[in-house]
Design a protein that fits this description.
322 residues, Hypothetical upf0131 protein ytfp, Rossmann fold, 2 domains, five-stranded parallel β-sheet, three-stranded antiparallel β-sheet, 10 helices, elongated, AIG2-like_dom, Lysophospholipase L1-like esterase, Ester_Hydrolysis_Enzymes, SGNH_hydro
Length: 322
């Protein structure tokens, strides 16, 4: 029989209340004082009757990023069962993610389920689509920057460090040394279409590829290693990692693009892998497939969005991430 693990959970609200702990865990749980730097709180209206009954409150708190601020709270030491009970208690507005406490200890915390809404300083990394190719206004990231900064010009920033042609391996290698100077609280990785491309000629065309053209074990290992490196880099800066999946492509127009083949099957396999990895590792995943699906008029060359296509991607991100 497998023994239950102990989990550390940072609480800044009702989970510190002994009445709530008794209702959820059967009694008070071991706690210790803790603080979380780089955050503040804002009120959140609660409508779930069970949560209101347990806490006695219809307004709870939710975390928001703020450079120089700090939130005081407690670390709860929970079993597997206790952590599952806490997950069930928190409403859909919250998502459990990793944070680094002021002590340097890593712990779980319940953050805003919309990962870009509480952000203050965002770093975008990725490929030509994240860079904004084919849109003189800077693509979806340019739209996001304008809206994000306009909401609080004095405090908010967005740095687009995307490089055309980049793969996840490139991004995983190049990003870590670029973060310190920008002091990000959110790292938005546009896990682009280059990771699904296959060279048309040469031995590299078959490397890491299964008979049906989807990713093989070797490529999955490389993708996993790159994502783990990015997750570690984000946590080093107490930043939240957000992965944006590939956008829809029209393979009838991209079969021979600069010596590469882009197919819908491989793009969908990449999308499925990224979604599964994010879910397994409690990382935020934003899907960019649907906004351009079957809308080939929004693609310049079957791969890169037009200015209108970038606008559609931004509106989707805005609706689901902010």
């Amino acid at each position: 029989m497998t023994a239950s693990r102990t989990h550390t959970l940072f609480s800044f609200g009702t989970l510190m209340d002994e009445r709530v702990q008794t209702a959820l865990f059967g009694g008070a749980v071991p706690t210790s004082p803790a603080s979380l730097a780089g955050y503040t709180t804002r009120p959140l209206k609660i409508t779930d009757p069970a949560v209101i009954a347990a806490s006695g409150l219809d307004v709870h708190l939710i975390l928001e990023r703020r450079l120089g601020a700090s939130v005081e709270g407690s670390v709860l030491h929970l079993t597997d069962e206790g952590l599952a009970a806490a997950d069930a208690y928190e409403v859909d507005d919250y998502a459990r993610r990793r944070v680094v406490l002021s002590s340097g200890e890593s712990a779980w915390a319940y953050l805003d389920a919309r990962p870009l809404r509480p952000a203050e300083r965002i770093v975008v990394v990725g490929d030509s689509i994240a860079y904004g190719r084919c849109d003189p206004r800077g693509g979806w990231a340019g739209h996001l920057a304008a809206a994000h900064i306009a909401a609080n010009e004095a405090e908010r920033r967005l740095f687009n460090l995307a490089v055309p042609g980049s793969t996840l391996a490139d991004v995983g290698e190049q990003t870590p040394p670029l973060l310190a100077a920008r002091r990000p609280d959110t790292l938005l990785v546009a896990a682009g279409i280059n990771d699904s491309a296959v060279p048309l000629t040469g031995a590299a065309a078959d490397a890491g590829t299964e008979a049906d053209g989807t990713a093989g074990t070797a490529q999955i290992d490389r993708l996993t290693g790159s994502l783990e490196a990015l997750a570690a880099a984000a946590l080093d800066h107490n930043a939240r990692l957000v992965v944006a999946g590939p956008s829809w492509l029209d393979e009838n127009r991209t079969r021979d693009y600069e010596g590469l083949r882009f197919t819908r099957a491989r793009a969908l396999a990449l999308r499925a892998f990224l979604r599964a990895w994010c879910e397994a590792n409690h990382i935020d995943y934003l899907d960019l497939w649907e906004p351009l699906r079957e809308r080939t008029e929004l693609l310049v060359d079957g791969l890169h969005p037009t200015a209108e296509g970038h606008r559609a991607l931004y509106e989707h991100l805005d609706a689901h991430g902010r």
